[in-house]
Amino acid sequence: MAGLELLSDQGYRVDGRRARELRKIQARMGVFAQADGSAYIEQGNTKALAVVYGVPRGIGGVRSRALPDRALVNCQYSSATFSTGERKRRPHGDRKSCEMGLQLRQTFEAAILTQLHPRSQIDIYVQVLQADGGTYAACVNAATLAVLDAGIPMRDFVCACSAGFVEGTALADLSHVEEAAGGPQLALALLPASGQIALLEMDARLHEDHLEQVLEAAAQAARDVHTLLDHVVRQHVREASILLGD
Amino acid sequence: MLKSKTFLKKTRAGGVMKIVREHYLRDDIGCGAPGCAACGGAHGGPALEPLPQDPASSLWPRPHYLLPDTNVLLHQIDVLEDPAIRNVIVLQTVLQEVRNRSAPVYKRIRDVTNNQEKHFYTFTNEHHRETYVEQEQGENANDRNDRAIRVAAKWYNEHLKKMSAENQLQVIFITNDRKNKEKAVEEGIPAFTCEEYVKSLTANPELIDRLACLSEEGKEIESGKIIFSEHLPLSKLQQGIKSGIYLQGTFRASRENYLEATVWIHGDTEENKEIILQGLKHLNRAVHEDIVAVELFPKSQWVAPSSVVLQDEGQNEDDVEKEEEREQMLKTAVNEKMLKPTGRVVGIIKRNWRPYCGMLSKSDIKESRRHLFTPADKRIPRIRIETRQASTLEGRRIIVAIDGWPRNSRYPNGHFVKNLGDVGEKETETEVLLLEHDVPHQPFSQAVLSFLPKMPWSITEKDMKNREDLRHLCVCSVDPPGCTDIDDALHCRELKNGNLEVGVHIADVSHFIRPGNALDQESARRGTTVYLCEKRIDMVPELLSSNLCSLRCNVDRLAFSCIWEMNHNAEILKTRFTKSVINSKASLTYAEAQMRIDSATVNDDITISLRGLNKLAKILKKGRIEKGALTLSSPEIRFHMDSETHDPIDLQTKELRETNSMVEEFMLLANISVAKKIHEEFSEHALLRKHPAPPPSNYEILVKAAKSKNLEIKTDTAKSLAQSLDQAESPAFPYLNTLLRILATRCMMQAVYFCSGMDNDFHHYGLASPIYTHFTSPIRRYADIIVHRLLAVAIGADCTYPELTDKHKLADICKNLNFRHKMAQYAQRASVAFHTQLFFKSKGIVSEEAYILFVRKNAIVVLIPKYGLEGTVFFEEKDKPKPHLIYDDEIPSLKIEGIVFHVFDKVKVKIMLDSSNLQHQKIRMALVEPQIPGISIPTDSSNADLNEPEKKKKKLEK
Ligand SMILES: [Zn+2]
């Protein structure tokens, strides 16, 4: 049997998208009243929930890890046991989750203006409810909205997207099927206004001649994500102000 | 618009997995018709014609597009490829099904789609908002796809009507499925079977012959007797293989006996590696090279491979009973030791059918349209085809494809594909041997040619980047006469420090062939230039092979140089590699170079350089032989062609001069130096060449043969083999040594290309070198191009690319190259055989001295040194009393009526052309001396057996 054809001669991917098209994104902010900030995002079938507890909790130094000059960013990642097709129990705090937590922390330390809140701690909890490729990107995008919802000052949005490379063409926003095919994949978190890269990660080998093309695809996709998230935030603010105005 | 597809899938572990996949529907997919306002005409690439005029169909005279279903695409690809068929819409649904079911057809349809003139358009219907259909409750995948195809056809017709009502442009649905066709007609879609439509194309009657003949399922049960047992479905086979009831293997039909085949079991099983199948029913419609599942019989039913030669000569279907009689013939009483694992085919895992060359055996019944086709390859069964042009096709070489093999049919069904020309014609026969050996030989396509440098070409400053100017060196090339693709040149000069500088300069082909483009892909596919007796099938276009890359004298040429500093004992002190520009001072033949070296009065730069090279080469060769390199021998023959008719007029064995071995020595040295360098730099992905040591049993024939002449051949190491071959001299029999070397060559394994990261054993047995590669012939071998690229990256002269350092890709390349090299060799042999026939056809019957190479049960294989020709003398002939033969396997020897034959015995044979079988003309040999009454042929009297014209015999007697 022939393997899956990831990109047809007509330029369509397995799910019908063209190479540079994103999956459908839907997002909502402020989904939990208890938390300081929260958001839910769907990127295709990948669904993630982010909750943020932040300023000024932690002042007074209950936690010994508190830093004197800036806020500590703590990220925890988990995936729901029902998030993938197979029924598999994942122990809490497995290696993959820890790694993802670390990556998220690295990403948000680069974006949050931590020096404004010394000796405090910002906790970001992200849970993936359904995984269908691009989990890291969905987590970052959900967390960005949640952090904004919490009113924690950031340099800029952090927008993330994945990209891959098939038969000489860069594909944006890989689905699980495309990830599973085993080609090179790249995850990029971008601060769109400045174009600064918050995190860049690469799986499998990709020849350097092609890196630029793939990176460019990921960056463009991240900027597209930004446009959408920006829209979500404005919508949320409008709704909130109407509520307040009443 | 978004659709979610949800389905359940079983995982490998046996658990059930729920899979949810997104499926996006779009409204920006064009219909492919140019000038369609609704779609904006926005689609790149080839598309349909706005108003297709041809072909004129009597069923549907108005302009129309065709929309075939999956089975039509799969089975009638020969019709679709015909230039008469254009403007076809290929649905994504159809294309995906084809892709899953047949990779070769998928490739062919893609090629057709890419051909602008065919106007094929692929419509991505599965993602189109209006043509996507969901699988309904209780509907299976096949029915759903059939419905999707009808929905798309219907959509097209409505869409085209909207576009322009007065054009009356419509889509015609082509399907061979009766139910599907009925449903389509009900839904208002014009639908025909492929046969109906093709027959309606009155202007193209020849298309009918290309129709695949397919019996509809169910129909076959009604008519005729069932001959074969049913093939089990794939799922059952896989289960059976997993549980060990069945074995999976490759079916290899016997060349000699159409009722016998062996199946080579896949995997590493030591036991039952090879299973014998005997009898039509047990072969159960498997065709040579198919992947099959077999059932192994209990030991009591095992048989021995028969030594009978049986050719299928039946004409009629009803001969099945006779077959059974013949099968009984196979089962001769044999001793138990000879019994081999035996079984039968229970199912086909994968068919490996290809188009076959062969000839038509016209049916005895006049007016009959059904005829049997006899493939040139004796391992392929005869094929029944339907054609109206039988009388035109008689005596021609034609190509036929198999369509299917129903259970009630003695022969598979097929259809005519192409007429190659008259049998025996040189062009036709060359075409046949190229096709049968899968040698790509079509002219290079425009896409390939577009990557050639523009003429007039000259070396620019950019070319000189990372390149050394070596034009001042006294470089020359030495090749066989008439060589136009010169890929190597040499120089040698004394340095100030008294050492010698030797350079091997190789055509810089990789400068012109850039990775990944069409030119590169085509060269990679061809893998090697194929040299036939009077024709060369180039790996790269002629502009490169015979001009820009050919290192001709007195022109500037780009080269890749390997330069050593050596002392006078030929010890390498320094090695360096560089891209360069050279200007060869002379293109010499071996003979010319030899003459210069030998004539003491000539003392110009070129000659001094040649003498230096020759001196060093001798030392190098001695060193190599001391290390255990083998000098083997195979009789090579060359034809002298008549310059006008291109018929071979004389034939001679190749002469070897000192200069041949001089060039060879430096090529070997360059290849070894480069192999070391690229392996050092790319330990995981160097392309190397190895030659495995043969298993000791291979040498048995050689050792026995030598022993019969009281000589000892040691085979424990390459070195002892080389030494014992050197010592095996007989003063009374000077040719004996050559014969031994010829035999030794037959014992060897095939040398192969491999990727260093995929193998541990690099040793080259024949050359006694721990590492080896091919660097010196990039014009005619693709392996050398890859090696050039690797070396260029290693020295920083060129940039790398991803595939170069991907060991799996490299392993794939090696696999193809090994296949192409093997096929090129076979094609070459077949070409020599054909020209030998032409030669003896014009020469008539001759008697020559010959030596026995092998002794068989009922024959001897002899070599005629004068022609380098090998042939078999049979002692058993049809319709003749069998002589008394005693065969001794141990010596080996064959005793006939009191006369004993040993290996290496000198005999005299008569050579003649046997044209009794038009398709397989062959050289026949008959014994003249020693005389055996009733067996040998008298030297000078005419013989009734040799249906040769009288005048030729007279010529012989002169
Ligand atoms: Zn249209």
TrEMBL record, chain A:
Classification via CDD domains: RNase_PH_RRP41 (cd11370)
Record-stated family: Belongs to the RNase PH family.
Sorted UniProt keywords: Acetylation, Cytoplasm, Exosome, Nucleus, RNA-binding, rRNA processing
GO biological process: defense response to virus; DNA deamination; histone mRNA catabolic process; maturation of 5.8S rRNA; nuclear mRNA surveillance; poly(A)-dependent snoRNA 3'-end processing; positive regulation of cell growth; rRNA catabolic process
Protein name (Swiss-Prot/TrEMBL): Exosome complex component RRP41
Gene3D superfamilies according to UniProt: GHMP Kinase, N-terminal domain (3.30.230.70)
Superkingdom, natural source: Eukaryota
Record note on quaternary structure: Component of the RNA exosome core complex (Exo-9), composed of EXOSC1, EXOSC2, EXOSC3, EXOSC4, EXOSC5, EXOSC6, EXOSC7, EXOSC8 and EXOSC9; within the complex interacts with EXOSC2, EXOSC7 and EXOSC9. The catalytically inactive RNA exosome core complex (Exo-9) associates with the catalytic subunit EXOSC10/RRP6. Exo-9 may associate with DIS3 to form the nucleolar exosome complex, or DIS3L to form the cytoplasmic exosome complex.
Organism: Ictidomys tridecemlineatus
Residues of the Exoribonuclease phosphorolytic domain: 21-153, 156-220
Record has rRNA processing as a keyword: yes
GO terms for MF: mRNA 3'-UTR AU-rich region binding
Any one Gene Ontology cellular component term annotated for this protein: cytoplasmic exosome (RNase complex)
The keyword rRNA-binding is annotated on this UniProt entry: no
Cellular location(s): Cytoplasm; Nucleus, Nucleolus; Nucleus, Nucleoplasm
UniProtKB/TrEMBL annotation, chain B:
Co-factor requirement: Mg(2+); Mn(2+)
Disordered: region residues: 936-958
UniProt key word Nuclease: yes
Domain RNB: 467-797
Residue ranges, compositional bias (Basic and acidic residues): 948-958
Keywords from the UniProt entry: Acetylation, Cytoplasm, Endonuclease, Exonuclease, Exosome, Hydrolase, Magnesium, Manganese, Nuclease, Nucleus, Phosphoprotein, RNA-binding, rRNA processing
One biological process term in Gene Ontology: CUT catabolic process
Superkingdom, natural source: Eukaryota
Subcellular location(s) of the protein: Cytoplasm; Nucleus, Nucleolus; Nucleus, Nucleoplasm
Gene Ontology CC: cytoplasmic exosome (RNase complex); cytosol; nuclear exosome (RNase complex); nucleolus; nucleoplasm
Limits of the PIN domain: 64-182
Molecular function (Gene Ontology), one example: 3'-5'-RNA exonuclease activity
Subunit structure: Component of the RNA exosome complex; within the complex interacts with EXOSC4, EXOSC7 and EXOSC9 of the exosome core complex (Exo-9). The catalytically inactive RNA exosome core complex (Exo-9) associates with the catalytic subunit EXOSC10/RRP6. Exo-9 may associate with DIS3 to form the nucleolar exosome complex, or DIS3L to form the cytoplasmic exosome complex. Exo-9 is formed by a hexameric base ring consisting of the heterodimers EXOSC4-EXOSC9, EXOSC5-EXOSC8 and EXOSC6-EXOSC7, and a cap ring consisting of EXOSC1, EXOSC2 and EXOSC3; DIS3 associates with the base ring of Exo-9.
UniProt similarity note: Belongs to the RNR ribonuclease family.
PANTHER family: EXOSOME COMPLEX EXONUCLEASE RRP44 (PTHR23355:SF35), RIBONUCLEASE (PTHR23355)
Protein name per its UniProtKB record: Exosome complex exonuclease RRP44
UniProt source species: Urocitellus parryii
